[in-house]
Amino acid sequence: MTVNSRQWTGILMIIISSMVIIPAALAMDDPGFTIKRMVISKDVINNEPVGVGDFFSAASDKIYCFVEAGNIETDMQISIVWYWSNQEMARVALALQKGNRWRTYSSKNLRGLKGNWRVELQDSSGIVHNSVSFTVE
Hints:
Blueprint: H1 5-29, E1 34-41, E2 43-45, E3 48-50, E4 55-56, E5 62-72, E6 76-84, E7 87-96, E8 99-109, E9 115-122, E10 128-136
Parallel strand pairs: 4-10
Antiparallel strand pairs: 1-5, 2-3, 5-8, 6-7, 6-9, 9-10
């Protein structure tokens, strides 16, 4: 079987297109950082979460979502989004700075709201890269 120049042109266009499209699609999945830890805690002291758990008392005034990121390719902004019973309760913008390790956190006043909570880490496009759930009793 022989291939004519028109067929070669078609084959080359497919190869070139795949070299452009596939890396672009993969880059969309790469947020430019990795999540090393994302936990809910009763406090944050000296940049470390204290009292990490999945269940918290409704008597707790404040709760924290602690995030440790790594391999951060460039300075960027993330959002910590707090949900109670699937209703957005707060959205907090936080900075991640370029480097091997960055720790940050957001806090939320619970106001005695019992039930299921979820916290999402979203990039500037609103893509969810991690989430944690906890219950207030």
